Amino acid sequence: MSTTNTNAIRPLRTRELYAPSHFGNTYEATLPGEMTGLLAEAKFWGFNRFCDWFDTIDLYNVYEKRHNLFNMPEAMWARKFANFECAAAQGLGLGLVVTPNHVFSGQVTPATEARKEPNMFGQLVCPSRPGVTEMILENYRRLFGDFAARGLRLESLSGGAYDYGGCACEQCRPWIVAFGKLFKQVAELGREFFGPMEVELWGWWWTDDDHRAFSEWADAQAPGFFQAMAYHLPYGVTDYAVRPIPAGCAEKRPLSISRTARRAVAMRTVTTAPTSRRCVSKKRFDTCLRAGPRDSWPTRKEIMTI
Asked: Residue 258 belongs to what domain range?
């Protein structure tokens, strides 16, 4: 007699590798051939989407340059797109993280600058000031056009309200709602270029008040628009707390497979690159990437150091 396990763990539809190629990390330092190997390894372990974020800190507007030199902004753009092209060649889906009011260095002026609080840093502009929202949307129109011109289709767009991001002026309070309105416009613009896109939220540094205020606004003004939320796990905390999210918004379970831990961390995907030494069994790692209970995650012994 055969039996059916009604509690069987189902694979997650999206397993996304967030690979920010900046701050001198591995993804920035790899040459094209090395990136090909890294992403082939990631695909072996079950990842099916590559994601990055275009950091503009200390960079002038690459779309308004008045020279033919290959300076740091051009180098950053070239490296980012090289990695996206490598991921596309591997057959991975492409996702982009955006922090909407973080802009190019020359775009921050006394007439545009955001009002900051301790958790708000970066080259930030205030979307409530005249012409600023239009400037932000023009930045993304050019970036999306750059993707499209290279034959790269984005299938998802994820928005972060903080790090970098934020404005504490009276017109932007509560910031989390001002962010939601701005990010919604960016996502609508993205859909003009790429058609249907998944629109997701990155809960990094969101407070309980942020979750409540955003959910109330989204349910009333943008029902069903935001499709997933990656929770933030604060430093020193080892488990998630229940927080409100918009109706119909799926939860994401971020994981870190590292030398020292077997717990979820404050990122939306596995943030450490899979190593060339496959030190966790493929079957157990597949289980880790499924929507199962914590006792199904690999043990510390199974996550061996290199």
From this structure: 16-296
